[in-house]
Amino acid sequence: MSASTSPSRASTRSSRMPRDERRAQLLLVAREVFVASGYHAAGMDDIADAAGISKPVLYQHFPSKLDLYLALLDQATDTLNVELERAVASTTDNKQRVSAATAAYFDFVNDRLGGFRLVFESDLTNEPAVRRRIDEATDRYAALISRVIAQDTGLTSGEATLLAAGMAGLLQTAARYWSRGDTQVSREEATRLISALGWRGISSFPLSHPPE
Predict the structure, then answer these.
(1) Are residue 46 and residue 125 in the same domain, yes or no?
(2) pLDDT at 7 over 50
């Protein structure tokens, strides 16, 4: 019996799921296929087969491969945004906020489901809709950090945003390098090093008022 007709997949094909549950299943399966193969090499046939459904059923949920990929990008960037906002809101100490946000980012990179690879290592970055989502994810992180920078410094909103964008670039580059596994640095140590580097830069500016 072939893999495509295995008992587990055959039973999945014959079962009916509520639409929302089926959509969630398809997103999970598609993420695994895209992360493993990349956008261009992955086919809708591959995704349908891995999900144990027919291709017409897959197209009922996602009219095209691009629509499916964009839905995954939205899901991944929304998850990252929620975790970063939670990290920044977890304390009123700005040094700890930078550390918490950095830790949340590295957790996203370290996620076995590969959300980071979908967002920041996409092989479809020339597609305008994909590029826009990647830029928006970076902008949201920069906006969060700019509030931390502006809160206790005398910098203008524009100055704080520029520095935050620089920190976002620093974090993305470091995280991508770390995720390749070329170093023996643990996630905890990587978080400590990068947050310390980022905070050293922020703390060099004079405080407009001391933290409460």
Answers:
(1) no
(2) no
pTM: 0.79
- pLDDT tier at 95 (50, 70, 90 boundaries)? confident
Six-digit token string for 141: 């992180």
Contact 152, 117 (CB under 8 A): no
Same-domain check for residues 53 and 149? no
3-state secondary structure of 180: coil
Number of domains the chain is built from: 2
Do 114 and 187 reside in the same domain of the chain?
yes
Distance separating alpha carbons of residues 122 and 99, to the nearest angstrom: 27
Q: What angle do CA 149, 117, 197 make, to 5 degrees?
A: 30
Task: Tell whether 211 is covered by a domain.
Answer: no
Average pLDDT, integer, range 137-141: 87
Confidence grade of residue 10 (pLDDT, cut at 50, 70, 90) = very low
CA distance linking residue 196 with residue 168, whole number of Å: 14
pLDDT at 212 > cutoff 50: no
Instruction: Say how far apart CA 126 and CA 140 lie, in whole Å.
Output: 21
